[in-house]
Amino acid sequence: MANPALFGRRRSPLQDHDAALVRGAVAGPRGVTLKEIPHLAQITLRGDADDADFIGAVRAALGFELPLAANTVAVSGDVSALWLGPDEWLVVGAPDSETDLSIRLNGTLKGQHVLVVDVTANRTVLELSGPSGRGVLEKACGLDLRPRAFKPGQCAQTNLARTVGILELGQSGAWRIYVRNSFALYLADWLLDAMAEYAIDAAL
Amino acid sequence: MTGHRLPSGGRIDRARPLSFRFAGRRYQGFAGDTLASALIANDALLVGRSFKYHRPRGIYAAGAEEPNALVQLGAGAYSEPNARATQVELYDGLTADAVNAWPSLEWDLGALTGLVSGLFVAGFYYKTFMWPRAFWNRVYEPAIRRMAGLGKAPREADPDLYDKVHVHADVLVAGSGPAGLAAALAAARAGADVLIADEQAELGGSLLAARGTLDAWLRATLDELRGMPNVRLLPRTTVFGYYDHNYLCLLERRTDHLGPAAPAGLSRQRLWHVRARQVVLATGAHERPLVFAGNDRPGVMLAGAVSTYINRYAAVPGKRAVVFANNDGAYRTALDLAEAGAQVLAVVDPRESSPGDLPAQVRARGIEILNGQAVAAATGGKRLEAVSIGPLGGGAARGVACDLLAVSGGWSPVVHLFSQSQGKLRWDEAKSCFVPGTAAQAQRSVGAANGTFALGAALAEGLNAGAEAAKDVGFGGWRAPEPPIVDDPKEAPPHPLWQVPGAEGRGKSFVDFQNDVTASDLRLAAREGFESVEHLKRYTTTGMATDQGKTSNVNALAILSDATGRAIPATGTTTFRAPYTPVTYGAMAGRDRGDRLDPIRVTPIHSWHVARGAAFEDVGQWKRPWYYPQGGEDMHAAVRREAKAVRTSLGVLDASTLGKIDVRGPDAAEFLDRVYTNGFRKLGVGRCRYGLMCRDDGMVFDDGVTTRLADDHFFMTTTTGGAARVLEWLEEWLQTEWPHMKVYLTSVTEQWATVSFAGPRAGDVLRELAPAVAVDEESFPFLSMREGVVAGLLARIFRISFTGEPSYEVNVPSHHGLALWEAVMAAGEKHGITPYGTEAMHVLRAEKGFIIVGQETDGTVTPLDLGMDWIVSKQKDFLGKRSFARPDTSRADRKQLVGLLPADPAEVLPEGAQLVWDAAESPVRMVGHVTSSYWSPNLGRGFALALVKGGRDHHGKTILAPLAGKTVAARIVAPNFLDEGGKPLHG
Amino acid sequence: MLLIPCPWCGERDETEFRYGGQAHVARPLDPNATGDAAWAEYLFMRDNPKGWFRERWNHAAGCRRWFNMVRHTITHEIASVYKPGDPKPELPE
User: Which residues of B fall within a CB distance of 8 Å from A115?
Assistant: First the structure.
């Protein structure tokens, strides 16, 4: 039930903070950029990974296999599924696709004991990109982010600064950070502050 | 030699002169100097006064172990106390002062205490200042603080930036001396990710202080390491803490050495959190002082430090020198001094002979070696003037005039990090030192830190350890590189000399220089029965200064061992704790200060509240509008206006912060029945019910309204502060106790924005905004939910009330929250809609006697205590039910919730006020306390909720609240102040 | 800081977890048929050994799953982790 009139009135947590995000961007070989990718469709999906009916129904709805390996992401076209736990996934799609995704999943999963909840408005997504992206994240996050340990196509729920979020490394090398809306401003501000030093041209 | 600076050599940059000030005087040094080396080059050895006796003290060491040269760096907000001059890199314009010298370094009033030093014996704190008792606060403590303060903390906020990073390494190497570099090289060549940190500005450790040895190898190794992508080199970085599971903390000083030239916006210091799979400790060794009378005179220095100042900094600490050592290594210092043009008068060696290679070289230069002798005393004031040398066994002593005495009592491996990692130390009798014994973590000690003092052996040990560490993390199949060829001299073993015999009667023999603890203090303590090293340490304060006894611990232990007639290993060791050297609080806070101290959570409507000038209240991490002052209103006026508006017309509240949990599954109703005190199985679809949760001990845990969306689907709300806690708690029961139940939970707190409008006009607003929703009593009764379109937005509308007024809570996806709020404001305008904050909400709910979990409850309150029996099911079982029958929980005199009406209607009791029946009673029995208290515009008086022992039996009675300066009487009433029609209940 | 192997997510810093106390404390099957002393024992009394301990942890900042862990309370060595409902492992020597 994608109602354009409704979508037009949507506001994202960082909508009024574009200028700060643009100002905080650093270009060049030590560059790093933070931006918001607002309104990505997000569905929390819970079900029994050992149940072939469940896995099959999700495959039928999404057209690809749910990732069963911990901390991995499966992608097909616009839609991806992030492993969040042994019985929990976050299905992510293009903006405005949440109703369609819910209908598809609820359709093929009808009658099963599962949870399909639209959480599109629960979190927003920050994208951190550029050569210094990992350096910035290392200030906020204790995970092993070395390329050998955290590869494109991986994700993790973890502590970020003094909040929690979902970290995903895309094939392009950009980091996506899924953060709950109420913390988005805090985390963006924290990351912008951590980025600032890369704009200083100093050989230490 | 012109002055004390050599014309060539060393690692200073003579093309970059720097000027600096110390203790008010201007000096010059060079880039590459430390503050200490520059002072030595200026022959300014005197750097401070001692802690208790205010004796003049000079630079004693060249590194982290320095006990004397503590300085106050910089001024104002940038000032830093107790920096070790030996570790402060010189920069142009540096200013520093001596600590602990009052009124000045040269003329020190405190030195008078030296004349009354009988007061300051072991345990002086406990002995001297006990009597008269009243003197402690007024006389002793202020005086001690004035005289003993080691430096001054700045009073201004620290203007510098600090930050933190978290990194992972295959191999962390602490220390970049020969062994550390070798380990890093071997591990890195094998392919491991290596992080090597060293506290000094330049990597190389002891190689930097040695003449010519391995210069080429050092350059080549550093070049190779710098070129490897898997290696991170961190100079100016101290590994200061070694915690569980190979978690280490490092402090990097990034811009301290730049002084005012530091670029703005860069962190001054950075705290590194490192998780290492393998650790190599190559932290070197500290030289030990020798203990004899006057061994603290400025001009007495550690032999290794003398060599370091000469070879690395081209600064010669004295012109007429005596070397006093019990080991071969210190003979190098005699050679270095001679090479630098100083006159070496003698090497005094308590050993009967010195057959090694280095003594032979010393002899060949014509320097006298006095075997079997010792320095029994050093004399002088602000500078060493002479030493007294005599045979160890007693006999005629002779005085030798000199301005420098280089001492060495042997070396102690720096086992601090090893000990912090819970490793067990072992006493090595042959080497007279503690060495790492059994490691407790994935870790290896190498080089001098492992007691392997010979250079060739240290290199080999480092290479091996690096290769083995790499192998242990999966980079095996690779052989360690060959060590460079080193021609180590043949050395005779050291002979321990813990205290020069016969020195006792000739003046103070210091063991701990920083805390001014002497050998006789230690022996006195032992005689008084402080035989455990832990007791000795605390009683005498030895090893408890800011240097943690780096130079003194082993000497103190050995003297205790002698005094108690036990072997050293049987006497014990002290435990080393982090940090190895002091760490600034700024670095520990990092960027998490000011607004970033804790996350600030905001709702989607926050910008509107800010624009309307709301005052905010912190509720957990949330910023919630507290009240909205208008036209100069104070809080009370604003709250009065807001609370009145809700009862008489219309108010609107941003309730988006409520916790929200989606509960789904065939067992969802049964699950809710088990966690709530009341029943949910029979709740109809579309109906809402208030529920109370208890822990299994029967105490109230959380509350909220839960709505049945479908047979197997519920929407639960929790308190704002309890959202995360409740979800964790529910998951705990589902996962650990009832795994067979088919229920899924997920947090949707921020999916939904909640706009709650309340008051007699609430229905009118809903009718206008949701024309398709039937709002009449029959179609949309109290405690029910309808889905529909509100202001053009898909919404869930809940008809529930926390104020007692007709009220609707409308939930929309949070990205529509602001749009809904603005629509409600517009539709309510004709009714005088009034946005209200948490304070008015509290007044309104308290008027109705509705509790707030965390305010009326504190983890010791049951639903029965609250008088909420009506919500406690008699039929079903639920968490906490069994506990209601426990003897303590069913006592009749438990504190129970009551209402209070102060006798004076204008009185508003303070929350937390204690309540008594009889204020004259002594001691007075406290029978309760006020949990909530407000002024009610609807009652026209102050009122309160309180917990009172057996309170329900005392309705109508008067209870007292003794406050500062007055006692307030209040009548106990039922905890509800308004009837259904909104009229006061209690007259 | 401990490095805790979450059975689902792998090794993570201790700060991601919440401690849940002693494992294998059985809740009486019928609380209302349980005497006061036994009920109080269940509510309040826990072992506090110096040595190996079976305890519960919740991966609060990660997958939100509860699990059990065998940890040495002095050395912090972790012998094993296992899922709720799995049999009690023997304690190491």
Answer: 662, 664-665, 744, 746
Tens digit of each residue's pLDDT (9 = 90 or more) over B559-611: 999 999 999 999 988 788 999 999 999 999 999 999 999 999 999 999 999 99
Largest CA distance in chain A: 63
Low-confidence ranges of chain B (pLDDT < 50): 1
Those of residues 222-241 in B touching chain C at CB distance below 8 A are none
The answer to whether ipTM exceeds 0.95 is yes
Q: Does B742 touch chain C (CB under 8 A)?
A: no
Provide the domain limits for residue C16.
3-23+42-82
pTM score, whole prediction: 0.94
* Domain CATH number, residue C59: 3.30.2270.10
The minimum CA-CA distance between B338 and chain A, rounded to whole Å, is 38
CB nearest to A158's CB, from C8, C62, C65: C62
- pLDDT of the residue at B139: 63
| Best residue in A90, A151, A157, A187 for a mutation probing chain C (most C CBs within 10 Å) | A157
Asked if the Cβ–Cβ distance from C12 to A158 is below 8 Å, we say: yes
Candidates C15, C22, C76, C78, partner chain B, best to mutate (most B CBs within 10 A): C76
Q: Residues with Cβ < 8 Å from B317, sequence gap 6 or more? A: B4, B40, B45, B59, B299, B301, B306, B309, B310, B404
Supply the CATH number for residue A162's domain.
3.30.1360.120
Residues ≥6 apart with Cβ < 8 Å to B440:
B421, B422, B423, B424, C75
B972 sits in which H/E element: strand B966-973
Predicted local distance difference test score (pLDDT) of residue B116: 54
**Which chains lie within 8 Å of chain B at 3 or more CB pairs, if any?**
A, C
Q: Containing domain of residue A193, as a range?
A: 14-38+122-203
CB pairs under 8 A between A and B: 137
Model pLDDT, residue A64: 96
Predicted local distance difference test score (pLDDT) of residue B963: 95
C contact chains, 3+ CB pairs < 8 A:
A, B
Q: What are phi and psi of B632, to 5 degrees?
A: 80, 10
What confidence score (pLDDT) does residue B134 get? 63
Q: Is C39's CB within 8 Å of B883's CB? A: yes
Domain spans, chain B: 1-156, 162-285+414-472, 289-409, 502-564, 606-655+755-844, 659-747, 891-987
Is the domain covering B162-285+414-472 a CATH 3.50.50.60 domain? Answer: yes
Q: Kindly state the average pLDDT of the residues A54-81.
A: 97
Query: In the CATH hierarchy, which top-level class contains the domain B1-156?
Result: alpha beta
**How many domains does the structure of chain C reveal?**
1
Across the interface, do B735 and C75 touch by the CB < 8 Å criterion?
Answer: no
